[in-house]
Structures are given as structure tokens and as C-alpha cells.
Amino acid sequence: MEAVMANMAQAAVAQAGIARVAPSSSLRAAAGNGAKSAAMAGGAARCSAKATALGNFVGLRRTADADVASLATAFSVAAAAPASSARRSARAPISVKANVAEVKSAPATDLALIDKCINAIRFLAIDAVEKAKSGHPGLPMGAAPMGYILYDEVMKFNPKNPKWFNRDRFVLSAGHGCMLQYALMHLTGFDSTEDLMQFRQWGSRTPGHPENFETLGVEVTTGPLGQGIANAVGLALAEAHLAARFNKPDAKIVDHYTYCILGDGCNMEGVSNEAISLAGHWGLGKLIALYDDNHISIDGHTDISFTEDVTKRYEALGWHTIHVTNGNTDYDAIRKAIEEAKAVTDKPTLIKVTTIIGYGSPNKADSHDVHGAALGPKEVQATRDYLEWPYEPFVVPSDVKAKMGEAVQKGAQCEAEWNAAMQQYEAKYPEEAKVFKQLINGELPEGWEKALPVYDPSVPADATRNISQTCLNALASALPGFLGGSADLTGSNMTLLKQFGDFQKDTPAERNVRFGVREHGMGAIVNGMALHSGLIPYCATFFVFTDYMRGAMRISALSEAGVVFVMTHDSIGLGEDGPTHQPIEHLASFRAMPNILMMRPGDGAETAGAYIVAIKNRTRPSILALSRQKMSNLAGTSAEKVAWGGYTISDNSSGKPDAILMATGSELELAEKAAEELRKEGKAVRVVSMVSWELFDEQPEEYRNSVLHPEVTARVSVEASSTFGWHKYVGPAGKCIGVDGFGASAPGPVLYEKFGFTVPNVVATVKSVM
């Protein structure tokens, strides 16, 4: 750490007005006293550049009178003894009062108290990670200043009503640093100390990464890097859309910002680039991202793999960018950057905040050692000594509690003012207010299901993707919060809302969202839209391309985001595009995923029923697998019975059939035709639609046994997909007709014949198990 110490000492001297000079050999010796002697050939250069970029500081000390050697020596021995009271009194007073007029959010608060609040954030994170012996202390230690300014000075929120609609949204995209958010929430009135002390433990509200379903006040679930910033784009899109639809020249009832802290890892993940590209295109001016530029990842310094100019990339994507060169002590620079960002209304803003990870740790700062592991008792004490923090673990000084606890009163006042504005809005615009309140309260209009078309055998055969478009447009007329789009496949997925235009920078009130070829970004963005409140989003692509967005879909299920995933071209039946486009294992993989409904409707009635299920499930996402090829509307299908997951569509038995045929999607018609042939031969055959395994498995055992008679062992499943999982329904004596290898390029009917999806093959298979 000798190079780190020498450069931090240099920076502190320059902060005090002393010219920066190259570290001499004697300085290195002094700074290295007690430090590791391991050579840092490339590290020395990195640390020197880091010190220059960061500006001038050491710890939270602003030293007015010192020399380089003494500062370096002081840093090196900080682990052994706390700084003297004399040095504490030598801290140069830097008042923020002079900036109050220029920077409205800067409070006239004593700098020493601000320092204390920021250190309280750091040590709550340090102590929680240390107690858990697990976690990521480095980010909270480095990002504490920007977190403090956001929560204490900038954001509007009500800790006692975290779901208040017009709050600013905060997303910690770098979710591994969640103790930053938990500490901030605790200090501003959300959580109890006991929760912090149970960090990463069973049953606590402080899990190892932020989880919106566990911790009130956490907006979205983050952890997989890049997902959070993409969620933030969705949150900002939702704000822009609702503001455009409901705000009036004399009434702004939708008026809040989305703030996001992201790290190097988030910027490396491709999903973030997809999302920020769209954010720039859409001109989401109320999205402000603070990039914790600490240059450290798990493998070490980021110069081993990540050397691009992130700021220029964001600029190229249509963002306004700002660089705060010293994110550890230049609080005014952070404040001014946020004010500048808020003044730019036609672009999202990236604020690159250069920090030192693990700030204040004498031996681990600016290294990957502080990224993902507890500091250890000795280094915790060294950090306490160096940052002059005399308090026991989890103890928050009373003046810090009082200062940051003001958020409760401020939040209540903000909400009260908004409620008063909402009352005036209702008086002036009663119809708009009724719809708006319905949306933000998550209420569905009475009788909305009746808007969906009714299908019976008299309706001509059609592909379920075409039927889906009819349903989507019917729902858009009945559900004012329903919107969405496709990943550049609108004409193939059939997802255009014909009565609406495109959501664009200049037309944010419209409801067709053009995501471009960005499946992963699309999936993560709609998660943010769903979790904002007020909207029911859908998105679409080919079913096989869920491979590109599976990470976002998993987070959708985990975070209980009620997204509707419209997935077309659901089997080998799509034909000539071949195995690159033909999904095989996809149905099985999503059936294995918790808290997501995988539905493959077999005709028009079941497609309408699948949409009813999807809209009603607001805390569980749904996937509709839809066909390219035409399917007949069958006599026994039912929109209402889709909610049962599996049900009998035809049966010529008196209660106990000779055989049971099960199928989904386009193979349901095939199963029905095969059953008719068997019935001609005197066989009693039941045909069961297994449109959703998850829903069927949730039904009472009595009902399940009434559909799949336990004494009937002659069972056959028919599905143009992997047979994986079907054996739990067909049993050891049954057989599965499916596709357990990749498909092929040929016309759909040819593929069905070659893979055995024919009436004769189904009939023969049933006979073989009877």
C-alpha cells in the first residue's frame, strides 16, 4: 500500500494549498512504514494517476498546515494510534453556506457534522459486514458521500410511507454494496438497528443484495450487475409516460426523479449498454446516474480488462455527462453536479464520481481486498482510528441521528403537499384523476375481461400470435396502464397497439414502445416499468431469444414484477428459419423457474384466457408461448379454465378413460384428432389441455386427480418441445412425444411429419401404452 499512502498524502498536501510534487524515495519509505513491502510495479503508476484524478484529500482530514513527509508518516501509523485532537482541530473549515444560493440543495450544516454523518454510513456498513463475516464493505465506504447527499439533501421520499407515489426513486445497480442503502435507510428512518445487525442472515430484512420484496424502501431487486441501471431506465420511462398523460399546465402530479448508483461492473455488462442507449434515445431527462468510478473489480484493478472512456460512450449514446474528480471529500462538487443534471431536461445524465473503494482503510483502500470481504478486526480498528471514529459497532451518534432523521419530517411534508395538490387536481380534472388513482393503486377497471374477444369453433383457424394481437389491442382499450412493445419484431410478434402511436422523446404519452434489437435491455427495462406502479407492461420477441433476456426474466420472477412476456414462434412449427430459431428446451427451463407462469395456449379461447391470467397476476410474471402456424378453435377449450392450468377438453368415458392424452399449444388439436381416431375403434380417451403446469400444480389434489385419473396409467404427452418434465404427468408407464434434439430447416408441416407429430404416430403411441 506504500504507493496508495504516498499519493493520498500528496493529495492532502495539495488540498491544503501546498504544491504537489513527485513522491521522493524518503517519502515512500515514510509512507511505507508498517505497510506491505510487496512491489506494486504497475500499481504505483495507477495509484499516482488515481491520486491526481481524485483531487486532494487524505481520509476526511482537510489539513491546513503540514508537510508531505509528516502526512505520509501519519497515514502509515494511523492503524496503530488515533489522530491527535490537535490534528482534528487543524482541519480546515470549509463552509457550504457560501454555496446555498447557487446550489439550492446544499444545507447550511456544519461540515464536521456532515463528515460525521458520512462516517456513520461507512461504519454501519463496515460493522454489518464484519458481524456477518460476509459482504462488500468497499463500495459503501467509497460511495458514502454521494449516498449521503442523495438521501439527506436531494431526494424526496417519506420513510414512513415508502410507497408514496411521487417519491424520487433510488436504484443501487451495484447491488453488492447494499449496506450503503441499508445504512442510509436506517439513518433516515426506514429500518431498525436489529435489521442491520442481522445483515445476510435468515429472515432479516437486510439480505445480501437489495430485494424489493423483502425490504420496504428498496425499489427493485439488484445484484446481477447492469440490471439495476436498466431497471432505472424503466422507472424513468414510467415517470415520463405518466407525466405526459396526466400532468396539466397548472398541475404537476407526476414529478419525480430516478437516481441510480452504478459501478464499473455495471458498465461492463452488455445489458447496461442496451438500456442506456434507449434512455439516451428517449431523452429521459429525469434519470440521473452516478457512476462510482473506483477502478476496482473482483479480479483487481480494472485496467486489466476495462480501459474504455465510459463518459465518451455515454455522450455518444445521447447522455449529458459530468465528472466529479474527488468523490470522497468534495461534497459541493457532487451537489453542483446533481443540480446541473436536474437542469438538463432533454437528456439523462451520467455523473462520473471518482472515488477510492474502501475509503479510509489504511491497508486495503484502493484494492480488490476491500471489494467483497470483511475488513477483519485489525483493519476495522485501524479504519476506526484513522477516521477518528470512537464509537462501538452499530452505535450512531445522537447528532447524526437528529440530522439524518429530519428526513421523516421532510418526507411527511412533501407527501402532504402532494396530497393537497392531488385534491386540487381532482377538483379540476375529475375524470383524469379517477383514472390516475386507479392506476397508481393497482386497480383494474370493472369488467375489463369483457373487452377480450370470444372464440369458438365457428371462428376461422389462426395463429395464436395473430389472436394475441387482437387481445393486446382489446386490453389496451380496457386497461389505461397497458403498454409495451417488441425487440424489433413488431410485425412478426404481432404486438402493435393500432390505436396508439410510438413512445418517443417528443411523444411520451404514446403506448407502443420500440425497444430495437435489445432483448436483454428490454426485459430489464420492463421490470422497472412494472415496479414503478401505474403500468402493466408487456414485451415481445421470438421464444428462442429469451436466451438473450433470461437474466432479466429471472429477476422479474424474483422481484415479483407482473410483466407479460409475449413470445412467438414457439416450436419447430415456425419452419424454415431452422434450429437457430426453433425453441426446444425453453418451455422446460421456464417451467423450472420459480414464480413465473409459463402458458402455451392451444387456440383463441385459451389465448384470451392466458391474457386474463397474466393481467390478474400482478406479482408474478407470465410468459405466453404463441404459434406462427394456424390452429383451429376447438370445441372443448375455455378461457376461464386456463386459470386451472390443466383441464379436460374432451372425454368419451364414463369417468375412467382407457387412456389420457395431454398436450399444449398447436399439438392440442393434434391430440384431439388422434383421440377421435381411437374413439372410432371403441376406445375411451380423455384429452387434457396442460396450458400451464404451474397453475395446474397449484390446484387441490382432488381436482388434479379428477383430470389425471390416478388409476389410468396409459398416458401420452404431445408437445413439440423437450420432453423434460413430462414424466411427472405421464408416469412410468406412459410415453412422451416431443423433440429432444435440435430442430431443422424445412417447412413446418414437413418438420411435424419428420418428428412424429402426426395422427398415426400419436394413435400408435397411445396403443403401445394401453
UniProtKB/TrEMBL annotation:
Homodimer. Mg(2+) binds at D264, N294, I296. Belongs to the transketolase family. It comes from Chara braunii (Braun's stonewort). Thiamine diphosphate binds at H176, G223, P224, L225, G265, N294, H371, F545. Residues 462-634 form the Transketolase-like pyrimidine-binding domain. The active site is at E519 (proton donor). The keyword Magnesium applies. GO terms for cellular component: cytosol. Its cofactor is Mg(2+); Co(2+); thiamine diphosphate. InterPro entries: THDP-binding (IPR029061), Transketo_C/PFOR_II (IPR009014), Transketolase-like_C_2 (IPR055152), Transketolase-like_Pyr-bd (IPR005475), Transketolase_bac-like (IPR005478), Transketolase_BS (IPR020826), Transketolase_CS (IPR049557), Transketolase_fam (IPR033247). One of its GO terms (biological process) is pentose-phosphate shunt. The keyword Metal-binding applies. This is transketolase. Keywords: Magnesium, Metal-binding, Thiamine pyrophosphate, Transferase. NCBIfam families: tktlase_bact (TIGR00232).
